[in-house]
Amino acid sequence: MANRRDFLKNTALLSGALAFSNIKVNATPNLPAIAADDEQYWKLVRAQFPLSSNKIYLNNGTMGPSPYTVLNEVQQEMLEIETAGRYGGYEDVAIKELSKFLNTKDTEITLTRNVTEGINIACWGFPLKAGDEVIITNHEHVGHASPWLNRAKLSGIVIKVISLGKTAEETLNIVKKAITKKTKLIAVPHIPCTIGKVLPVKEICKLAKEKSIWTFIDGAHPAGMLMLDIKDIGCDVYAGCCHKWMLGPKGTGFLYVSENIRHTVQAYYGGAGVDTGWNLLATPPTYSAYAENGHRYFYGTQNAALFKGIVKAIEFQNTIGRDLIEKRVKSLANYLQDNLLKMGNTIEMMTPVESISKAAQISFKVKDKDVSKLQIQCNEKKIITRFVAENNINCLRVSTHIYNSFTEIDAFLLEVDKFIKA
Ligand SMILES: Cc1ncc(COP(=O)(O)O)c(C=O)c1O
Fold first, then answer.
1. Which residues contact 104 (CB under 8 A, 6 or more apart)?
2. Is any ligand 1 atom within 6 A of the Cβ of residue 189?
3. 65, 51 in Cβ contact below 8 A?
4. Is 201 part of a structural domain of the chain?
5. 37 band by pLDDT with thresholds 50, 70 and 90
6. How many domains does the chain fold into?
7. Cβ(249)–Cβ(313) below 8 Å
8. Domain of residue 295, residue span
């Protein structure tokens, strides 16, 4: 608590030199009591974000707005790089902090630009041949569907598309039934972009392991939303990003490749950092082993400012407290779901009500109405949501993060009510 208190009292995370920045730091507010349901506290948290006060941003699932502390760090570092003519740096720090945040070894983390990049590295890295089966779901984002379909097109692997069950148990049974002797890999989202359902990934990975099937998890959403623990899930590979729920710089992500599978997931791009040595003067020229860490999958010039921004984003989350963040984002989402359900059977709830299968995204449809029009109606009121057109699901997705409030959810509910009655 003392940590959180200091954070809000001093806004120490923000206070660094803003000399060249046109970002305005909000005045330091008075210190309130701190509790998960303390609206004063969360107002102060909101004040850490430049996010327009007249905007109700309920689309963190697409992009997580960064707080000042992250923006300031990135700006400062960019200025420092350009002033000093400095090259590189901070990769190791970002990797170390990410590995602590995700509970992995630091040698298992690769820095990427986004989730899609991590998915592509994994998709091409697994040694799959024509006829091998890969299980995915009918709730994939283009960033997860497209790489696998491309691999199927070019390598002849077979993509088996499963549906999701209403409960975690049902989903697990569907996965079980889809497995055949030819299944080599199960590649599923932890939380799909569509309906906010939390898949039973730990159980899926356990099942896969028993059958010697590899596992890949598209983890675009959980980092920064849940107390994500990748080792506990037990997957082989997990791709995530820092620019959604972690509220970090845009164009930053991570790929976890378990050390147990490092020698199986082939690196296909060469470059600085990928290998342990090469010699063009030898005859024939030599190329030695790949790096015994996540660097075997990334290379070349990187932006140190973004890496520093990742570290700041982690610091920001840790200062508030990851447990408190998870509680808060879930309580906002539960409030939204409960109130939508109270509107009766006009609402077709897409997100499960089972608590283990939901987190901070609620998706729904309105009976006999096109909810893309509700999205437009909300936009006009500066309430930002996401229409889910993927795979003809056609629902509206609402994401709740720490900068949101119950009052904002009420404003959204009012729009839903008007839409139903119109
Ligand atoms: C489930 C899921 N997977 C993958 C992606 C692609 O993420 P990125 O844009 O970071 O590549 C997204 C983006 O919204 C997503 O929701």
1. 230, 231, 256
2. yes
3. yes
4. yes
5. confident
6. 1
7. yes
8. 91-314
